[in-house]
Sequence to fold (184 residues):
Amino acid sequence: MTLQLPLHSDRLRFRWPTDADIEPMHSYQSREDYAMHAWREPRDMDHVIRTVEANREPGSWSSDGDSLRVAISPHDSDDLVGEIVLTLVDAESAQVEIGWALHPDHTGKGYAAEAARTAVDAAFEHLGAHRVFARLDSLNVASAKVCERVGMRQEATLRESHYQLGEWRDELVYAVLVSERRAD
Fold:
């Protein structure tokens, strides 16, 4: 199974990252307020360059840990709105983790939910997923709302599951099964 790009939603186009995405991607990947919800330190320019280089085209999608990172742009431009990452966490059980990041200039427009819904559908339709899930910091209220908007249900709260920014933090797990997929 493979993901064929470009993939489209009502307002967005999904494509492989290019060199033109490096600067705008770095502009949010390097932010502390972004990194706080991504459970890591801000990314430096070298890391962003390596990320773009490693994701210019589809990679393998057959083994635990394989992932696909796609850039998101409006239909009428190549401007980077954000990115979606799909990771094949358990190939045998067809368990796919989804993650997303939106450039701060593009938040509040419904792009995250539109992109996540399209990616969840693609995971089921094109990548053979049985279950798609998202793990997020409990303080990431915006991403929890996105999960709910795309038809995911909260499955768990993992109490004090990670230590970040000098404190123990809770993790939320949201998921949807192929049999529960919303028909829009």
In short: The longest helix spans residues 111-125. The helical segments are 22-29, 32-38, 45-54, 111-125, 141-149. The chain has a mean pLDDT of 91. The first strand starts at residue 7 and ends at 8.
